[in-house]
Design a protein that fits this description.
By secondary structure, this protein is an alpha+beta fold. Strands 2, 3, 10, 11 and 12 form a five-stranded antiparallel sheet that branches. A three-stranded antiparallel sheet has the order 6-7-8, covered by helices on one side. Strands 1-5 form a two-stranded antiparallel sheet. Helix 2 runs antiparallel to helix 8. The chain has a single domain (about 1-300), classed as Cyclic Phosphodiesterase, Chain: A (Alpha-Beta Complex), CATH 3.90.1140. It has helices spanning about 5-20, 35-55, 100-110, 115, 160-175, 195-205, 240-245, 250-265, and strands spanning about 1-5, 25-30, 70-80, 125, 130-135, 145-150, 150-155, 220-225, 275, 280-285, 290, 295-300. It binds 2-acetamido-2-deoxy-beta-D-glucopyranose (NAG) (3 copies). One 2-acetamido-2-deoxy-beta-D-glucopyranose (NAG) binds near residues 84, 85, 86 and 100.
């Protein structure tokens, strides 16, 4: 019997809600550097999922890290109040208010990320410590560097003091931009205490339960909405997290990721990690993805690299 940690249930349902809403969500994230082993392996996982997916009756893989989406580790994702005031009735037509976005980006620019990570090791590596814990088995000796749950396939990123510090540093500066009133998701009420109170508190205060102790860094490489291919799963979006586990286990994903994992495990001897080199803001899309070409700003992070004004790109509003 596989059990999910309450925080994972919260995390997955939060992403699901985002995936089906039309509001504009901005994702503050660590983009993977283009030229290293971890990027290659992240692309490889997505390539395998896309390839296995296209061999099914329906081509369900919606993440495309080759052209449509950016490989990234989300630090903070929320519904910010940045849209035009006179947004039309149709939410999908919402557009960003450039003035609001500029002050939002300026608020993030007040953070000295280099100072935030001073003394911390900002290596990004993968871990076999899954989001999922095996019930009645504390040995946790699984050798998978990935987690498949619900519609999501994710690489397990090692949760480090560096990533935690970066995520937490963003919360206060952007707090006033979170759209209010914040709707606390109903699933929060079904979490056991003390997670329940903590998740509700984080949602109310920050606009997302997936921060602080709810922060679960990962690289999303697949999002396969079963309702696209199977009528049996049509109620997926409304199902509980228990159903997400049982109804949506598509074996081809395990096959694809099993193949990926074998290759990745071989590389581990020589190390296959990356470094946090910067923080970016971009637009969130289906399955927790960040749209390619949606980047609004980028801040370099690290000693000798922090040149706060020279590297600011103009905000691009799409
Ligand atoms: C954009 O935001 C600014 C600052 O909040 C506000 O004064 C302005 O009316 C907004 N413009 C539109 C078109 O929503
Ligand atoms: C809303 O959209 C409709 C149809 O596109 C348009 O006719 C109308 O003028 C819009 N209203 C506003 C306030 O922009
Ligand atoms: C950011 O912090 C670093 C390390 O403390 C410091 O050297 C640098 O001057 C700071 N940058 C700014 C713009 O304050």
């Amino acid at each position: 019997m596989m059990m999910m940690r309450p925080s994972l249930a919260a995390f997955l349902l939060h992403l699901t809600i985002i995936a089906i809403s039309h509001a504009i969500y901005l994702d503050i994230h660590v983009p993977l550097p283009n030229d290293d082993c971890l990027m290659t392996q992240t692309l490889r996982a997505n390539e395998l999922l896309r390839s296995y997916s296209s061999n099914q009756n329906y081509d369900s893989e919606q993440v495309d890290l080759f052209s449509r989406h950016v490989p990234h580790i989300t630090l903070f994702l929320a519904d910010f109040d940045l849209e035009l005031d006179d947004s039309n009735a149709s939410e999908s037509l919402s557009q960003l208010n450039v003035t609001k976005v500029d002050s939002f980006l300026a608020a993030i620019s007040t953070i000295n990320f280099t100072q935030v990570i001073q003394g911390l090791d900002c290596t990004v590596s993968l871990s076999t410590q899954s989001f999922i814990v095996e019930h009645n088995d504390d040995s946790n000796n699984n050798d998978k560097f990935y987690t498949i749950n619900g519609a999501f396939t994710m690489l397990n990123v090692q949760n480090t003091p560096c990533l935690k510090a970066l995520s937490s540093a963003i919360l206060d500066p952007v707090e006033s931009f979170v759209k209010r009133p914040i709707i606390v998701p109903s699933w929060a009420a079904s979490l056991p205490e003390p997670e329940r109170s903590a998740a509700i508190y984080r949602s109310r205060k920050y606009g997302s339960p997936n921060v602080k102790e709810g922060f679960l860094p990962h690289l999303t490489v697949g999002f396969d909405d079963p309702s696209r291919g199977s009528a049996a799963s049509a109620t997926y979006h409304h199902s509980s997290h228990a159903d997400m586990n049982s109804e949506t286990s598509m074996q081809w994903r395990e096959d694809a990721m099993g193949q990926w994992n074998k290759g990745f495990a071989l590389l581990m001897n020589d190390g296959c990690s990356s470094m946090v080199k910067g923080i970016a803001v971009g637009r969130n899309s289906i399955g927790g993805t960040v749209l390619a070409n949606s980047r609004m700003r980028y801040w370099k992070v690290g000693n000798d690299l922090f040149l706060p004004h020279e590297h600011e790109a103009q905000a691009v509003i799409i």
